[in-house]
Amino acid sequence: MPRKSKPPLPRPVALITGASAGIGRELARTFASHGFDLVVVARRRTRLAALKRQVESAHGVRVRIVEADLYDPEAAGRLQKSLARTPIDVLVNNAGTLEGGRFAGMDGARIGQMLQLNIGTLVALTHAFLPGMLRRSHGRIVNVASIAAFAPVPWLTVYAATKSFVLSFSEALAEELRGTGVSVTAVCPGLTNSEMADSALERAPELAPWRPWLFAEPSTVAEAAYDGCMKREELVVPGAANVFYGGLMKLTPRPARRRMTGLFSRVMR
Question: Domains in the chain, please, with CATH?
């Protein structure tokens, strides 16, 4: 009798938030190109549907769309329930928002939303999907922070503070999980071509002529993030200039850091 062929092993699954644009969209394409099925999460269903068609056609993987407003404090719990039967191998907390300007003049509601999305939802999603990874003794978590995490940034006061939280949280959790089979990678990109950058440049048009030289492509950031995640690196800083900046901030006294970052971020007033 002919031998029965073994059923193919299930593909690993990556859950990616903020997947409708920018770095998130490129992360989805990158993970799919390496054979991952995807769960892509964002508010804009039409964009997710277009991403699903493109990725499934190009890479032969399965893409599940989840339309969700991650500004909602209850969103993480609902997402966990909807994916209760789907083991998540890689959680990519990419969704985030940037609000700049003089702190006293910022809209209080927008500040609250930024805190919720950049910190609250990221922590809640990590807390929701980490136990399953620990039970399986296997998993990876990628938290997208920013080089703004390396120093206080005047006129980006709350945004930079949220990214400092993400970096500190990720590094502490990575150490806590050492030896469990679950890794945590913090990714700290610099200026990146995205809709978030478009919004920032509306406030700081002086930077627009420098965009081709100062802003990295999201695909480059996504590839660096994927490689670091697969190597279980705890910190990924894409780009030599950003690595230099991170090292410089470590060596610079805190008062000088504030003044240095303030000189650049002053355009966000």
Answer: 13-268 (3.40.50.720)
Q: Would you call 138 helix, strand, or coil by DSSP?
A: coil
Nearest CA to 200 out of 99, 123, 114, 61 is that of: 99
pLDDT digits (tens, 9 = 90+) for 218-265: 899 999 999 999 999 999 998 655 564 556 566 566 666 656 565 555
Q: In 68-220, which ranges are E strands?
A: 90-93, 139-144, 182-187
Q: Are 26 and 50 in contact (CB under 8 A)?
A: no
- Enzyme catalytic residues: 159
Please determine, for residue 117, whether its predicted confidence score (pLDDT) is greater than 70.
yes
Percent of the chain past pLDDT 70, that is, above it, reads: 76
